[in-house]
Amino acid sequence: MSQGTSSIIPCLRYRDAHRMIDWLCHAFGFQKHAVYEDDHGGVAHAQLVYGGGMLMLGSVREDGFGRFLAQPDALGGRETQCACVTVADCHAHYERAKAAGAEIVDEYAEKDYGGAGYGCRDPEGHLWWFGSYDPWAG
Predict the structure, then answer these.
(1) Could you tell me which CATH class the domain 11-137 is placed in?
(2) Is 90 exposed, middle or buried (0-12, 13-18, 19+ CB in 10 A)?
(3) Any alpha helices (H) in 3-117, and if so which ranges?
């Protein structure tokens, strides 16, 4: 990364991080960039990429940072944030995610502000938004 630029990278924790890495790659089209094991058979840190974006994740653990995080199932399925991912073919992405078992919480629709989008949950309940609207396009 060049000096003066910055990136925002969502970071999630999963109870079964290995399973979810595979699922996120299969259902959403992420690719493994790096996976680092911990000493307990879990994931200390992983990086998945999608286009020019990245997601970091790891196993749920009660460490220094982990004590500030809660899983959706501990909050009645609620989230305080959601990762938004821009995709080229939103309808095809929707169909892929749905076929892989993503829980659709906001059906695919063309949006008045441009593009299309849908919202879903992964198998551990994290909320995701995928859409074709590119806010950088002008």
Answers:
(1) alpha beta
(2) buried
(3) 17-28, 90-99
